[in-house]
Design a protein that fits this description.
The chain is mostly helical. It has 5 helices and no strands. Helix content is 80%, strand content 0%.
């Protein structure tokens, strides 16, 4: 596995962990069933991509990177504070939209930074980007 492939897979894995944490943080706060279903569908897509990423890294004996603890903590704090003040689907949609936009931006940046990554790694990054863009679009009616 070349350096770019390893680096891109590590970033994808860390991004998936951030996304899954953010989705889990808001899932119990939704009222609308369609909103909840959009979150659950995205979570399942991310879990499948996480499994694929972990398997590729494990095959090369490369330990996972994990989500940045500071970023994860700040995300949780922001989510908790906003939902405490305004526990509504609009707040959930706002938080998820912000998270998706940050995730897409980061994943595109990493995909561009590691141009020699394998097609498999680039495909995983692309699928994550597509999943986050789809989730972001599905949040629009709630904003």
């Amino acid at each position: 596995m070349n350096h770019d492939t390893k680096a891109l897979l590590l970033e994808c894995g860390a991004g998936v962990q951030m996304a899954l944490g953010a989705i889990d943080d808001v899932l119990g706060q939704t009222r609308d069933k369609a909103l909840e279903q959009a979150l659950l569908t995205c979570r399942e897509t991310h879990r499948a991509l996480e499994k694929q990423t972990k398997a590729l890294l494990a095959a090369e004996h490369i330990p996972e990177k994990g989500a940045n603890a500071m970023a994860r903590g700040m995300s949780w704090l922001k989510t908790s504070a906003k939902l405490a003040v305004s526990p509504a689907d609009e707040t959930v949609a706002d938080l998820i939209t912000d998270g998706c936009n940050m995730g897409v931006k980061s994943l595109i940046r990493y995909r561009n930074r590691y141009p020699n990554a394998s097609e498999t790694a680039r495909t995983i990054a692309g699928q994550l980007i597509d999943s986050e863009q789809l989730l972001c679009k599905s949040m629009q009616p709630y904003l």
